[in-house]
Design a protein that fits this description.
Strand order of the largest sheet: 3-4-5-6-7
Number of strands: 7
Number of helices: 35
Helix content: 55-70%
Distance between the termini: 112 Å
Shape: elongated
Length: 750
């Protein structure tokens, strides 16, 4: 019976027989390939039975083991020498991708590139060739397998050697054994060993693919640390996991037992019991030396960019120049997790000395600490706790911020330089400041956390006020973020703190609203918030109305229909504050509050009542329209005070035919002076464009001499009809239309 059609038990027994025939016979690769072809293609148990029997019999005899070792290694070299046999397809594109990987790895200077899959092209390899031979070699001689994997010319082949046929996920003990046997990756000084081995790095990364407990992970990391180069590999892996944590998108959430986060936590805890900040910094120094060497090589192929014919100064020239080329912030973040929130003072000082070096040298890893990244909050919180452990946190903060002044000047004149990083170092330090003040106050109630807070707040304001326009939005948010800490740092002295913090931003309604929202979300009750802000000389309600009005007038060049519309200038947090304060933002809401009407009332009825409440002569205008059988279809308030309205009115059919206009027209009702921008805004109103007259606008106002002023107002082209509703000029709409619209008399016949 063919093994392909046998029962599972018979197939397994047949696989063992094939293994005995191959192992005890002549060591020929052809026999091995025939046996492999005879195994069932989809029965893993048969393959396991074959390899276990084969390995057991081969290892029994030293000569036999040596012979098969040589045969398998020669077969692997032969397979690598003919790349076309490796691919699922024989396309030229696949071969070019493979050649690019081979060339890239041949000249690679950094062994940690083995963990970076972004720089690789995608190449699909056949599952059995040469990985079948590699795994048999792993079974009979694991040390030789490690050496052979290192000789593979591309990283994708090395990954395949770990994943195909090996089943290492199901054999954690074998991974620990391989970690002990793998050649060393780093020399004593942290340089890449001359053998260019990376097997230990690949095995370390493979730990993330094993579904195991924290106990086993801790044991595996202990095995790693027993290696001569274990310290450098462990700190490099800590930085790699911290990098993953920093770039993780928090919007999609995540479970606390995800492999990366679990490994990050376990490794940080283990390193904390054995190493110090100095050890982590030594590992970073070695990696930074490699990064500088790579940059020197890339710089030789680099072309100087120009801007409108004016050469820009290189990134490593001028004040605030970049002196670091690696990404040190992830490892520093991992070190902060390793230290915890209450380290020894000497360790905290060593940590901040390292952080200052990264800031002043403009470490490229600082770009991961953007304010829109959810993981940044964890970083700045931990860094703030470590700053609070220094003997004088305020002095350290001021010193580092002063040393970053050349970078801030560089950003101001960014057009002169090749690249800029938007003051990200200064912004990160200012983000850390209030956290440090908070932890300092918690640690010692009599400490100077308040001066540190004010130092950071004033620096943030200065940074925002002196920033270029394209950077000001993030720096404005930075200033507002300080208000979230006021209730926690100042406590009972919150009133005095607000009297100092609010006046400098009082002329910016959006910032006042952000400050109020952050105070509310951090425990200040609404009934207390309003008087606190008023005592600081700022009216929160006026600021909210101004921000809402600005949002309604600028959103998509149209008029939003309700507060529920999401707007960057009036976000949900502002809406929550409005509801908590029980405010009315629009004149429609004022009418509902004053008369206690139900929100289920028809919208047009509510709009008519709000219009009559908002404009003194509004009820008179509506009365005239009803008398002339003109039907208001829509009434919309255009400002927060209710003094300007847009009405869409349907005329009687006979009137529209007589005048030669559309049946529906727009009416702009204004209490007070009419401005040209009011006319332009109404003519851009998109709703009802198919029904209303596109070029006709009736302007209703109690302004004296409206008819004389209206033609001279700046605005879009069209017919403007004044409808005066002053006490001494009480006219009908149809009369105003007939008086001011042009008429065309019929000429004589023939």
């Amino acid at each position: 019976m063919s093994v392909q059609h046998a029962s599972p038990a018979e197939a397994i027994e047949r696989a063992r027989e094939l293994a005995r025939e191959v192992a005890l016979g002549a060591a020929q690769p052809e026999a091995l390939e025939r046996a492999h072809e005879g195994l069932p293609s989809r029965q893993v148990e048969c393959w396991r039975a074959f390899k276990e029997t084969f390995a057991t019999l081969v290892r029994e005899d030293e000569q036999r083991c040596s012979t098969w070792n040589t045969v398998l290694r020669e077969k692997i070299k032969t397979a690598i020498a003919d790349p076309k046999k490796l691919f699922l397809s024989s396309s030229k594109h696949e071969i070019r991708q493979f050649d690019a990987q081979v060339d890239g790895w041949k000249y690679e200077l950094d062994p940690l590139a083995a963990w970076d899959r972004r720089c690789r092209g995608y190449v699909a390899f056949r599952g059995e060739y040469p990985f079948f031979h590699l795994h048999l070699l792993l079974c009979i001689d694991p040390a030789a397998w490690c050496v052979e994997v290192d000789t593979l010319p591309a990283l994708d082949l090395m990954d395949g050697a770990l994943f195909h046929y090996t089943h290492l996920k199901e054999n954690p003990e074998q991974i620990e054994a391989l970690l002990r046997l793998a050649p060393r990756v780093f020399e004593e000084d942290g340089r890449w060993a001359s053998s260019r081995s990376v097997v230990a790095l690949l095995l370390t990364h493979h730990l993330l693919h094993i579904d195991s407990s924290e106990v086993w992970l801790r044991d595996a990391f202990r095995v790693l640390l027993e290696r001569p180069d274990g310290k450098y590999i462990a700190f490099a892996f800590l930085g790699h996991l911290a990098h993953k944590e920093l770039i993780a998108d928090q919007r999609f959430g995540g479970h606390k037992d995800e492999p990366e986060r679990k490994a990050f936590k376990v490794l940080a805890e283990l390193l904390a019991t054995r190493f110090s900040v100095k050890d982590a910094r030594d590992a970073w120094t070695a990696a930074e030396a490699v990064a500088k060497e790579k940059h020197k090589r890339e710089k030789a192929r680099r072309v100087l960019k120009e801007n409108d014919g004016v050469p820009r100064m290189a990134d490593d020239r001028g004040e605030g120049a970049r002196t670091l080329r690696g990404q040190g912030l992830p490892l520093l973040f991992g070190t902060a997790v390793m230290l915890g929130e209450n380290p020894a003072q000497a360790e905290a000082q060593a940590f901040w000395s390292w952080f200052e070096e990264l800031l002043v040298g403009r470490d490229k890893g600082l770009s991961m600490a953007r304010r829109d990244n959810g993981s940044t909050e964890q970083l700045i919180r931990r860094f703030g706790a470590l700053l609070a452990c220094l003997p004088d946190p305020e002095k350290a903060f001021r010193s580092i911020y002063r040393n970053l002044e050349p970078q801030r000047r560089r950003t101001t004149f960014s057009h002169r330089y090749e690249g800029h990083d938007d003051d990200i170092g200064s912004m990160l330090l200012l983000d850390i400041g209030p956290y440090a003040a908070l932890y300092w106050c918690k640690r010692d109630a009599n400490a100077g956390g308040e001066p540190l807070f004010w130092c950071g707040y004033e620096a943030a304001r200065r940074l925002w006020l002196t920033s270029l326009q394209r950077f000001s939005k993030e720096k404005r948010k930075l200033v507002c973020s300080f208000f979230a800490f006021l209730p926690h740092i100042f406590g009972e002295n919150l009133e005095e703190a607000l009297q100092r913090a609010l006046p400098p931003i009082a002329n910016d309604a959006s910032m006042v609203c952000s400050a109020g929202s952050l105070l509310f979300r951090n425990g200040v009750a609404p009934e207390r918030l309003r008087p606190l802000i008023r005592q600081a000389g700022v009216d929160l309600e006026v600021a909210l109305r101004d921000a809402y009005q600005w949002a309604t007038l600028t959103e998509n060049n149209s008029i939003p229909r309700s507060i529920d519309t999401q707007n960057e200038d009036f976000p949900r947090t502002f809406e929550d504050l409005v509801r908590a304060l029980g405010m009315a933002l629009s004149i429609e809401e004022i009418g509902e509050q004053s008369e206690g009407k139900s929100s289920k009332e028809p919208a047009l009825t509510r709009q008519r009542r709000a219009f009559a409440l908002g404009i003194a002569w509004g009820s008179r205008l509506l009365q005239r329209l009803d008398e002339e059988r003109c039907t208001p279809r829509r009434l919309l308030s255009l400002d927060a005070t209710g003094s300007m309205w847009l009405l869409q009115v349907a005329l009687p059919p006979n009137v529209s035919k007589q005048l030669g206009i559309s049946q529906e027209i727009r009416i702009l009702a204004v209490h007070g002076d009419v401005r040209g921008r009011d006319l332009r805004m109404v003519m851009r109103d998109p709703e009802g464009d198919a029904n209303v007259d596109p070029d006709l606008l009736v302007v209703a106002s109690d302004q004296p001499e409206l008819a004389k002023k209206l033609p001279w107002l700046a605005g879009s082209w069209g017919q403007r009809v004044p409808w005066s509703l002053a006490e001494d000029e009480y006219s009908y709409l149809t009369s105003a239309l007939r008086e001011h619209l042009p008429t065309f008399a019929r000429g004589p016949k023939g």
